[in-house]
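Ticket #4471: structure export looks truncated?
Reporter: QA, pipeline team
Priority: medium

Steps to reproduce: submit the single chain below to the structure queue and open the exported record.
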Amino acid sequence: MQEPATGDTSTALPSSGPAQASLDAGSYYARRCITEDSNWSLVTVPHLTELCLQHIVHNFEKNPILNHLLPEHQRKVLDRLPTGLPLAVTANLVSDEEYWKRCCIERWQVCDVSNYGDSWKRMFFERHLENILKCFTPNTTDPNQVLQLIPLCKSYVRKLEMDQFLPPVQVYQKEERDDLSDTGNDADFGEVFVQHYDLKDLITALPHLEELHLVYGVKDCGMNFEWYLFNFTNQDCCNLAAAVKMCHSLKVFKLTQSNVDDEKTKLLARNLLDHPSLVELNLSHNLIGDKGAQALGKLISHSRLETLNLCNNQICDLGAQALAHALAEKSTLISLNLRLNCIEDKGGEAIGHALLTNRTLKSIHLGSNNLSEPTTMLFSQVLARNTILSSINFSCNHLGLNGGKQLLEGLAKNKTLTELDLRHTEVDLEADYLIDQIVWANREAVRLRHRLAKLL
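Actual output as written to the record:
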């Protein structure tokens, strides 16, 4: 058998057995490893640390060992955690703001974190709890949906805003009538009202709750409109009053557009007397009359209230006189809003008399109260003597030409009033212009003092 030439390996065939060992020393054989993936490289093999982190992320719900990791590894795990993990796992374990930011953005289209103290975690838990409460239907929804969430969110919830509060689903029979009126109420049909969800257990379990905004009504009910959907019952009022009384951390309480009448106002006022922290009360757009205003006058004298909003109610001169008496006697009130009531000149004069001695009120809104010249005559004295009041709104009243001149005379030596709204008050244009010049000068002087104070 003829041997291949020395150094020529292109046609050489490998031998097997003992013949392989007897090859000539000059013969050269090449050997290479051929892989299935031509792009395979040792560089692409994940590090063991990376594989471990992937495993932790995939099994986080069963084994959340976040606190046992190094800081740089915690960061990698948090960046990969899915936002759909149960809150029972993440609520008290994950404090990273970037994670909660992803949770918020993926769930809601509009996310303004500045309304939540710049905390994404607070935003998530407040809005999540609000969504549950807005959709809660008594006798239908399982109460455990709320109760089970309390231990998870109680450390982060400081404000609750509910622009709807659903009543129970009512099953009733309407009496047969030949003529049905669209303005009738459900009581005409023998409906038995059942109260809304009792907030007592929830509110008292939130130690940091500072603001509560409620509307007892339904949004977007469409063709399913019924009057009972907007009924704030006496039992609802009793439950709410007891809950607010026990919430000692509450600073702001708003109950608007809920058909709160005099009796319910008196009940709320009794429970808010001597509240340790409440500073703002908003009962606007309700049905409060003179008796309710009298109860609120007593509340002003026995509380730490600084802001009271009674806009768009049914308060007349007797109610205004009761509020004025409280302002003159003992009050910490800084802002009072009586817009869209009907206190008329008797009520306006009573408030004017109170402001001659009051030393706390800085802002008062008396717009749309059917006021005229007698009120401005007294407020002319207020402007000349009161050095605390900085804002007055008389818009949409009938002050007339003489009313404007009286206010101008009172402002001659006033240095503290920085806002005076006289829109739609029938005031003379020249008087309006001169008043505006005085108020503008006062405002600029205040700004200058603030700038100098900062420099010093």
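Status: closed, not a bug. The export was complete when the record was re-opened. Leaving a note from the reviewer for reference: Residues 429-455 form the longest helix (27 residues).
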